[in-house]
Amino acid sequence: VSIYTPDLQNILSLLFFLLPASALTTGIYMIFSTKPEMATQEIQPNETLTNLKAESDTLKTKLEDERAKLHDVELHQVAEKVDGLGQFIMKTRRTLKGHGNKVLCMDWCKDKRRIVSSSQDGKVIVWDAFTTNKEHAVTMPCTWVMACAYAPSGCAVACGGLDNKCSVYPLSLDKNENLAAKKKSVAMHTNYLSACSFTNSDMQILTSSGDGTCALWDVESGQLLQSFHGHAADVLCLDLAPSETGNTFVSGGCDKKANVWDMRSGQCIQSFETHESDINSVRYYPSGDAFASGSDDATCRLYDLRADREVAIYSKESIIFGASSVDFSLSGRLLFGGYNDYTINVWDVLKGTRVSILFGHENRVSTLRLSPDGTAFCSGSWDHTLRVRDRGVITWATFPKGPHSQGER
Amino acid sequence: MTINTLTKGGAQREQMYCLRKMERVIVAMQDPDMGMKMRNQRLLITVIPHAMTGNDVIEWLIQKYNITEEEARHLGGLLVQYGYIYPLREPRSLLLRSDDSPYRFQTPYFWTSSRWPATELDYAIYLAKKNIRKQGELVDYEKENYSILHKRINHTWDFVVMQAREQLRASKQRRKADRIVLECQEQAYWLINKPCPGAFDVLDLGPERCNVLSSRVALNADHYRREIEHSRRALGRNRVKSSICLESFMKYSEQYLHHDPIMSGCLPSNPWISDDTSHWTINTDMVGIPTRLRVERWSFSFMELLNDSMGRREFMIYLEKEFSAENLCFWVACEDLRHGESSKIILKVEEVYKNFLAPGAARWVNIDSKTMERTLEGIKRPHRFIMDDAQMHIYFLMKKDSYPRYLKSELYKNMLAKAIVPQETKKSVFPFMRRQRHSSPSPAMVTQATEDDGKAKGAGPTGTSSTTNSQI
User: Fold this and answer.
1) Which residues of A touch B340 (CB under 8 A)?
2) Which one of B231, B302, B468 has the shortest CB-CB distance to A131?
3) Residue by residue, what is the 3-state secondary structure of A390-406?
4) Which residues form the WD repeats (chain A) (predicted)?
5) How far away is chain A from the Cα of B150, in angstroms, using its nearest Cα?
6) Within 10 A of A53 (CB to CB), how many other CB atoms are there?
7) What ipTM was assigned to the predicted interfaces of this complex?
8) Are the Cβ atoms of A144 and B207 closer than 8 angstroms?
């Protein structure tokens, strides 16, 4: 016996036009079920949310399947024809002492020798790392200054932390002038500031926060230019893409996701979720075609943006503690990782092997950056110091022959 | 011991992913087949069973993970610092000694991951026991904590003392070896959970982070709808085969190998090693003759050329010869618009229109009619990104056309020929005498000078050519 009576058909067409899809399906169920209850149009808020989450998870699985389809070879396989690197010895060239507490963040100036660093006790110091002189110092009104950045012009620094703000301090050379007097509050979040970076000029700042969002700000007016929603938990790090059109950046968070964003539209362009714990640091590969991430799951990973997938994992069974910050050498051949077990591990990006493990810090390494011209790298630690290191002994065995052979010891 | 409720520490436990990994190492160490060989260790006159020496730990780690002794010592040291292995001799010093000092595995009951955060009640009982057992056994900071707790949880103090007495009585029934072991285990646990103020605190985690389970982000319908939309878009995305993408990494590292100071060193020397800043002075923006490496780099990509101010200058000279300099000028003006102050946007858009887009403009740029139409329409409501389309069009025009021709031009070839290859600095005859490290003008100085009009306070870091004494 067909239940498609003309009356039912009319009801159905009416329902189709009047009700939202979810109510319709329930409505239809009610009509065709043998239960005698009245059809209800009310949807429990809980159900819709569960359905949405389930749908999202299904799509994510489908996406992973799609991504796997074009993965025809592993990075270390392609890298078989490249020469191995042997072991590297890195030497500490400068130790910067002056912070009275844990160093949380640092950034290089474009002049390749100055750096700004921030610490738990609210101190932000600008050093000429080459001479180890302190040039400026300012005390923030909050503790745990987790983010700091040098302006491209070298004339200002930005910093923030538990105050939920990002402030810009113009660097004055007048020794008597109090830097704090000229302080400019730029960004306002509803939770701690985890990272900040100037874009191509001193006029805009990109921030990430414990409130789960990233934001782009106009420095002059403090105006919010764009906000980026999509992370499901605290955002811990960000990095700007060195691409030709210069319009994207990547962020990593406690939701184990790394998201690539379009700065102009605020949309999330690509998303990667393969880490097993918080992502503490993200950094673009020099060409802009990929980025690396460091996580509490004790691995660093490489994600290719054109292949749209994770392409390498850098880990070792003996490395148990999380990677807090990562950066590439200038050619992208080496990946430096600062870890929470006080060490720095240096990886051969192509082969996936470790070429060096560096000791020296007496507490976790919280921040690590290569200098702008790649001549050295600086690490900051909870042991209150910063160390500038570079290649030590270059033995003939490991040194690639080239027109600029250098027998440096 | 009282039962610990760990709901509060939930988010923190999630953070301590590494604790689970350490536990896996510990379990592997105790594996009957592949684990360490343990034996009885003598502690004064008592024999403690199932103990190992510091050396044993290090040897095992070297074998198992194929690492150097230095790394094994470091890893073993962390296991002790986190309380998974504790020393029998000198128990207050949580260090791994690479000799025959005896160590034992901490019982899982006292693992950092199982009993964290430590409760005040448990701590009070522990201190009470110590106090009862031997007068004056409490160390200074423990005495302080004891009196603080006494005030704070005074209402349960009877229970505390009763528990302490009960536990002491029970332990007296045990064999001496077991009693010592239990005391050591408990002590190790408390050394980590309630360290001496000022001492290293391994459980110091920094500001609390929230992950998905306790998120501050509203995981509401909008959030999931956004995720769904994103996944749908992502599904339709064009992807490139891995084999092609990964090849490009090989090429890139090879191309930039000699430009990477950590891989190949730099000439004349790395300033951080030799204390000689020549490498920086010969690579400044204003230098008369650039280095060969620098000029070579301009040929790697159009972006490399534009990112170098000298390269950009040279390219401009070339374009002027070709009567297409307006393209680069336009691109520069658009960059300035995109990255400049919000307040100057309207003004800048007007300028760009006047100079480059208006019919009959002095430096009219040739963009396709569709883009031009769209841009002119958008100018009516100017914003930061209004020139994006036009800028990209001109960028790719220069990249495809002018840039390759520039690289083949006499201008570029001469530049390359003229470019200097610095001589490698010979290691100084007296290597122990370090050169003096000179200061450099702060970038902030340059702008300040132009602002202040040569104020008297110009005796900043540069005024005195401060030859700072080398510091270790």
Assistant:
1) 201, 203
2) B468
3) EECCCCCCCCCCCCCCC
4) 96-137, 186-227, 228-271, 272-313, 325-357, 358-390
5) 31
6) 16
7) 0.87
8) yes
